Structures are given as structure tokens and as C-alpha cells.
Amino acid sequence: MPPHRLADQSAPAQVSASGVPFEAAAGDRDPRAQGGDHLTSPNGVRIPDTDHALKAGRRGPTLLEDFHLREKISHFDHERIPERAVHARGAGAHGVFTANGSAASITRAPVLAEKGLETPVFVRFSTVLGSRGSADTARDTRGFATKFYTKEGTWDLVGNNMPVFFIQEAIKFPDLIHAAKPSPNREIPQAQSAHDSFWDFVSLHTEATHHTLWNMSDRGIPRSYRMMEGFGVHSFRLVNQDRETVLVQFKWTPKLGVHSLTWEEAQLAMGTDPDFHRRDLADAIEAGAYPEWELGVQVFPDNEEQTYEGIDLLDSTKIVPEEMVPVQTIGTLRLTGNPTNYFAETEQVAYNTGHVVPGIEFTNDPLLQGRNFSYQDTQLTRLGGPNWTQLPINRPQVPVNDNHRDGFMQQGIPTGEAPYSPNTVDGESPQPADWDEGGYVVVPREVQGQVVREVAASFEDHFSQPAMFYASLSDVEKTHTIEAYTFELGKVYEQAIKERVLGVLANIDTELASLVAEGLGLPAPKGKPAEHLPPSPALAQVTGESFPLDGRLVAVVAGPDSDLAGIAALREALDAEGVQLKVLAPRGGKLGTGKNQQVVERTNVTARSIEFDAVVVADGAPKDGDIKATVLLQEALRQLKPFAAWGDGAEVLTTAGVSGPGVFTGKGVDDVVADLVAAMGQHRVWERADLVTASAVPPAV
């Protein structure tokens, strides 16, 4: 039993205002805990099922009459005042989305269909679990929410950096977050899933296995928001001008490639720069290295089954591999402006999955159905009332005439005498809009079925997709995933929970389960890995592909006697690649005089490896073996970063023990620049991974 639970055994008896113990006071109830053995609604009605929403048929839409769903989510929505219950830690940016016109055949929404149309956007990236004051680089899911200010109204595409979610039904979301958030008695751990309640929940709700595996992979610690994929998670219905429909899933693909931190980098950043991701995004935009993503869609027939090749399109814990259905690019997002005021924009921006425009409709995905209620409900408390869409950052960039009146935070002065429709008092204004006038007219579809709290049988397959995901990873990514599970479960007190999780892993991959068990000092579980589709190369991050270097940082280790002309030449060469050079020296100030004079931008005291994508040692750099400089070099070696040195700078690398793949030396700058740039385009020196892993494992006794 965890030591913090022992103290609860001796908690003093509580008494009522009259001095009588609560259990003896007539009509009183112990305020410390909720009582009774059965789950109930707030008004005391016993609840038979808190995992499934009430639907019109097992695959039908969620019903508004489900009071338990509404009460449970509504209470959760209002738990944090005024901080977001989830996604509290965020960073935002302004930009523009440009459609390429290829979506015209599948949707009538101009934002996606009109070639060359530029739509203003505001994007908010975020972590999920941590509070506003938490660190950016915690292992966590990342939010990727985009507000499109379209000429038909605001469209919010509210997604994550992972295509699947923990749960299949929105009714479970409060339970998931309660399990993942800090414990209510100690308010720890902050922004971490490495604790008992989280792993207790996900091991009991095995539908969470797929998303949890994504989080334990390198996807859980992205290198930068600029190098992070985004997904709409759900299947949406698109409608074209002929009222024909298809189902689609949205994906954002970064032009800089998908890249992640190592676990060591993530931990270093938490201490040396907890604002690492926020700073990286703002600095890149300020420097003109505007981040870009391609928006793509996977397109599926809108058939009666709502499946594709046996994969359920209404199950948000599943994906359709890109090898089966390729992603079609329909536009480009470019972020070009930082917020002027964090509170007014990044903090007050509010998204709502229910905000769509004509040409985009919903499916019966039970997670999406619940989110459509939850997002609107959340803003009533967090932003102080029903007029949150009038805040400047949330305001549509089209005329609004909604007949709403008054309420907290009313920003405008409504005119007219008839806030209702139809009317004759105000000259029959406003008028409804039909299809041809751009009205949001839903394409008719049949809904029937018994009222049940059930899901389709296909929702019960919890292991074949995570097994496919793990099989698709590169060897180094598999190693990192094993290490992540070992760390997380090593922080769990209850052995029964660890053993239950290992049993889940045995349904994914035998080696994964046995190596995690070995790291925990527990027996390897028995199990039969689930059958799965062939590995999907699109799911691996280490692909051998080369990417642009816009916004990358390189440190050049230098000193008073360094080759300043060489540094100037290096700066010019890297600048042409969109890379910034930072001079790192023992002390601040300037090096040299004249046209080649260099400003010292980092010192051995202020710099750590996490900040840089590569390290170069200049000819004439100090060779006194400064421990801080040596630590930086050795960290960068373990983090698989490229190195270069010219002249006697190579001696500094040798003294620090830096050698092997990805270390380039030469007589002059020109001898190393091309190799350095090529290596940076691969994100890391992956050939070094086995050497680093082997050196980190103690020899057998």
C-alpha cells in the first residue's frame, strides 16, 4: 500500500455542528465522502451503466434525453474555474489556410473547396493533463485546434496530435480525466500519467490501449509544435453541391516532418526551459520561419455500415492505415503571426466541435456526439456566460443575427423589438436561409433503432490496432516505447495494476510485454498477441526521409582565439538553409573586432543541449575541458545530434568522447557544412542509436 494511503486510516472522526458524530446525528451526512454502494445521479437515482450513452440503436445518434450523460459531462465541464479542465497549457498563433480546390467534388464548403481561397485562422496547441503552470515537454497528448474564420461562419476543427483517442464514448471522459489528473488529496503528480489511478483506469478500459501506446511512443514527447501531426480524430460527413455525401478523416502533416524529443531532452527542458514548445513556436514565427502543414483527408464511402474493409469508422480508437486509403491534400496552413496578448487571444480562444459550416456534417461517432454538447457547455463557466462567441478572438468574421439577447458578457447593443422568429414587428427580419442561400441544411438520413446503452460488436476489438501500430514502429522507436512503459509503470505502487497492464501488453506484442516486465522485475505475462493488419510505414517517424531545416538552431562552440571568419562563413551558409547559429562561449560579450566580430549569445552557464539541433566546434575553441561544455557535448551525443568541427576544434570533440556516426571534421568550414546540413535534415543521427542504447545498459554480472 502506498505510504500516503496509510495516514488515511487514522483520520479524526468528523462531528456535526452540534458536536455529535456525523453517523449519529439525525439527518446529517459525513461531508468527507460520498456514501452508498451504488453509483447514482446527483439526485440519488441509481445508475446501471456509466460507460455508454443512450442511443437510437447500437450505431445510432446519442439522445438528448440521456440525463446521466448530460449531468456527468456538465458537472465535469464546470470543475475548473476559470482554468480549462484539460488543455490548460497552450500556445497559439495566427495564420491563413489556403484551399487547393481538390475538395470541390466532396464538399460545398468553400473553405475547403474553393481553389486559392485564403481563410484566416487561429491555432492553439496544448498539452492535456497539466495546469497552466506546468512544463511544455511532459509526456502527454497534444491538442491541435484550428479556428477557421470562414465566409460562412466559424468552423472549429478540434483535434489532437494522435488520430485515436483513449475512449469510445464521451460519457467516459470525466472518468478518464479524473483518473489522469493529480490525486485529489495531494494534487500530485502534475502533468504526468505515471501514477496508479491512470494506469488503473486504462488497464480496466482496454479500449484505451491504442491511444496509450501512441502516448508511450515518441509521439508523446514532440520536438516542436512545428513538427507535430494533427488529426481530427473523428469521421465527419462532407456534402457536395449535388447533396452527395462521403465520410472523411482530417489530417495535418507538418512540412518540417514529424520529429520528437528523446526522454532525456524532455526532462532537461522541464528544468532548463519549461516553456520550450511555446518559445520555439513564437521564436520561429518571429524569425520568419513560418510553420506550415498540409491538410489532408482520407475519403470513405458513406455506406449504411459506416465501415471500411471491416474497420469501424465510428470508433475513435481505430484508424484506417494510409496504405489502404491514401491521404489527399486539400489545402495548406501557414502560421504567420504571434498573439499580441496571451490572455485575450490564446487563453480566451474557445473551440466547439459543434461549430461547423455548410458542407460539413457529423456522424454518429458517440465520442463526437458527446463533445458537441460538452464544448458549448464548458464555456458557460470558463468564459462567464453564453456570449463567449462575441469575444474578439472568437468572433465570426461574418454578420451575426442570432436573436439571442442579454446574458453575462454581452458585448453588443442589440437593436430591434422582436428577438424571435418569425416576426412582423421588425419587418420579418432575420429570415431563415435555405440551401441556395448558404443555409446549414442537413442531408436527410434515416435514424432508427431501439433505445439502448450499447455499442456495436466491432467496438469490442481493443488490441488488433495497437498491435499494428507497434509492429509499424522502427526499432529505435520500439526501444523508446519499452522504456516509456517501464518508467511509467515503475512509478505505480500497486503491483496488481502493473500486472494487469503487462497482461494488456501481452495482447499486443510478446517482446514488448516481456521486456517491460523484465525492467519492472516481474514475470513475463502469458498472452497471445492479437492478429492485425500488415505494418503501416506511415506510422513510423524514422523513415530516412529528409526535411527542411527552417527554424532549427545550431550552437558553435567558440572562444577569444577562434576562427571568427570561419564562424561568419558558417552563419551565412546555415542562414541560407533557414537555420539560426548561436555562438556559445565561456563568457558573455563579444569575440574579436571588425567585420567578423561575433556576439556571444549563449554561455556555458546558460546553455544546455536541449536548445540545439546540432553542435559545431570552431577552430581555436577553448580546450580547457570546461565541465559544463563537456556535459553539453556528451548530452548531444546521447541525443543523436549531428556534430561538426574544423581545424583543431576536432580535439575538443575527442576530449569529450564524441565520435562515431554523424561527427564531421575537416580543415575548414567548407569541409563540414554540406554533411552537417544533410544530417540535420534527417532530424537525428539514427545510426548512433544502437551505440547509445548499448552504452546505457550495464554489463551483465
UniProtKB/TrEMBL annotation:
One MF annotation (Gene Ontology) recorded for this entry: catalase activity
Domain (Catalase core): residue spans on this chain: 40-429
Cofactor(s) needed for function: heme
Catalyses which reaction(s): 2 H2O2 = O2 + 2 H2O
Keyword terms: Heme, Hydrogen peroxide, Iron, Metal-binding, Oxidoreductase, Peroxidase
InterPro entries: Catalase, Catalase_AS, Catalase_clade2, Catalase_clade2_helical, Catalase_core, Catalase_haem_BS, Catalase_immune_responsive, Catalase_large_C
Pfam families referenced in this protein's UniProt entry, alphabetically: Catalase, Catalase-rel, Catalase_C
Region (Disordered): 1-59
The EC number(s) this enzyme carries: 1.11.1.6
Function statement: Decomposes hydrogen peroxide into water and oxygen; serves to protect cells from the toxic effects of hydrogen peroxide.
Similarity section: Belongs to the catalase family. HPII subfamily.
Name of this protein: Catalase
Species for this entry: Klenkia terrae
